[in-house]
Design brief:
The structure is a homodimer of 289-residue chains.
Chain A lengths: L1 E3 L2 H13 L4 E6 L5 H13 L2 E6 L19 H10 L4 E3 L3 H4 L6 E5 L6 H5 L3 H16 L3 E5 L3 H13 L5 E5 L19 H6 L2 H14 L5 H15 L3 E9 L13 E8 L4 E8 L10
Parallel strand pairs in A: 1-4, 2-3, 2-6, 3-4, 6-7
Antiparallel strand pairs in A: 8-9, 9-10
Subcellular location (chains A, B): Cytoplasm
Protein name (chains A, B): Pantothenate synthetase
Catalytic activity (chains A, B): (R)-pantoate + beta-alanine + ATP = (R)-pantothenate + AMP + diphosphate + H(+)
Amino acid sequence: MKIISTLEALQQERVQLAKEQKSVGYVATMGFLHEGHQSLMKRSKAENDITVLSIFVNPLQFGAGEDFETYPRDAVRDQRIAEQEGVDIVFMPEAAAMYPGNSTIKLHVADRVDVLCGKSRPGHFDGVVTVLSKLFHLIQPNRAYFGLKDAQQVAVVQALVHDLNFPLEVVPVSTVREEDGLAKSSRNVYLSEQERQVAPAIYQALQKAKQSIQDGAKDPEKVASAVKEFINSQTSGRIDYVEILSYPALKPVKEIDARIIIAAAVYFDKARLIDNLVLEADGSIMDRF
Amino acid sequence: MKIISTLEALQQERVQLAKEQKSVGYVATMGFLHEGHQSLMKRSKAENDITVLSIFVNPLQFGAGEDFETYPRDAVRDQRIAEQEGVDIVFMPEAAAMYPGNSTIKLHVADRVDVLCGKSRPGHFDGVVTVLSKLFHLIQPNRAYFGLKDAQQVAVVQALVHDLNFPLEVVPVSTVREEDGLAKSSRNVYLSEQERQVAPAIYQALQKAKQSIQDGAKDPEKVASAVKEFINSQTSGRIDYVEILSYPALKPVKEIDARIIIAAAVYFDKARLIDNLVLEADGSIMDRF
C-alpha cells in the first residue's frame, strides 16, 4: 500500500496508472474509518483494478461553531484498516496543499441543499463539492463510492457529476449498521453510554415508516409524524428534522408515489446523529440510481 | 476528421483514445474560425497525438443585450478549416445537450473579473468557466490552447485549472494579426470600411506603450494615458477601457516592475474590439506562464 501526501506524487502515480490502463475506484473520507467506510473499500476493490482512499478533514465543509477542530482523527489506525482492506493508495494531503491561497473559483450548490442537513449547515455542501472537484481531478477515478447514510451528500455529488459531466460513475452504497441497527458513524464515539443504548430507536422508527408504506401509507406528513413520535418516546435526543422528500431531487412530496427518502437527524448531548432510508414507491429499498 | 455532436459519442471516443494512450490537445471555440484559431490548432497538432476542436456558441457567457443571437456562425466553413488544419475531432454539441435543465451546481469567478472586459460583462466569466469545466471533463485534454487576445480569459482559465486541480496544462498562444496589426477576431466582420482602416491604431498604441516601457517608463497611469490619447486621436471609436494590471493576477500596479498586461477595448458602431500585450518588466513579450 502506498501512502501519498503530496499532490505532485499523486499526479505522477495517476499518470503511471493510466499508462497501465488500470481502472480506479475511489473512496473519499475524513478518516477515523469504520465499517461503513470499509464496505465502500470492499465494493471498490471488487469492481476496480486499483482502489484509492483519501483521508482529508476538509475545513471548507465545516461551518463556524462546528466540530472541525475536535473531529476525531487517528491516522495510524486508519492506515492499518486501509491495509487490511487491500487499499492500493492512501492519499492524505495537507490542508495547505489543497487550499494554497484564496481561490478565484467558487462552487455553489444552488439546489438540494435547503432541506435535511443542508438547512442547518449553510455552505457545507459548497465545501463538499469544492473538495470533491479537486480530489476527482487529482485521482481521476472511474467510480466513486459514497455511503447512503449521507444520502443528501450522495444526491449532491450525483448532481455535481451530472451537471459538470465529470467522467466517472457515482456508486451509492448501503448504510452499514451495528447489530442493534444504529448506523455506523465516526461521531458515535461521542455518545454517552445511556445515549448509545437508545440511539437505535432512530433506525427502528425508520423501519416502522418503511413497514407502514409497504402497508399502503401514502401521506408523507402522517408517516413523518409517526417517526418523530417514536424517536421522542424512546430517546432523550432532540429532533433536528424528520423529512420525507423525493430522491435524489430532494423536493417535498404530497404523496408517496415514487422514490423517496425518509431522513432523520437527532441531537444528543455531544453528537448529532443522522439516518435515513431511500425507498421505492412500494416501500422496497433503493438498490441503484 | 470525425464530427461528433452528442456527448455520448464523444465519451465513447475519449475512452478509445485513452486505450490507445493518445495525448489530446484541445482548442475551445465559438466557431466562425479565423487565423487566430488556426494558430491554436497548429500548435496543438505540433504538441499532441490528437487534436480536438469544439465549436459551441455558449449561451451562458452572453449577457442580456449582448450578441448571442447575432454572433456569426458558419459550420460548413468551420469544418473545412478544421479539416485543412488536420484536426482529428470536431465536437459540435447542441445547447440542449450541454444544458439539459437547471443546474444544481453553479461556478462563480470571484477574482480577476472586476477589471477589463469582466467589468462590463457581469457573469460572462461564470459562463466561461462553467462551459469549460464541462468540456474539459468531456474531452479530457492533456493540453488546452487559448489565444492571448483574450488575455483575461486565459488568466481566468488558468485560475480554474489551478484552483480545481484539473489534470491539464493551459497553453497561452500569441495573438494573430492582420498585416496592418489589427488582431484577428470573429467580430472584425462587423466593422465598416472606414472603421476597419483606423482600427489598427489600437495595436499601434499598445506598441508605443511597449516601446516607452522598454525606454524606461514605470508609471502605469502615464503609459495608459498615452495609449488612450493615441486611440482617440486616430479613430472614431469610443474607448471602453485602457488598463495596465499585473498578469495573470490582474491587480492594479503602482509601478511597472513585474509582468503586466496593457489592455484596451474600443467600441465601434457595431463591434467592440479588444487587444493587449502581456509584457515582462523590461518590456519584452511574455513567452510562457
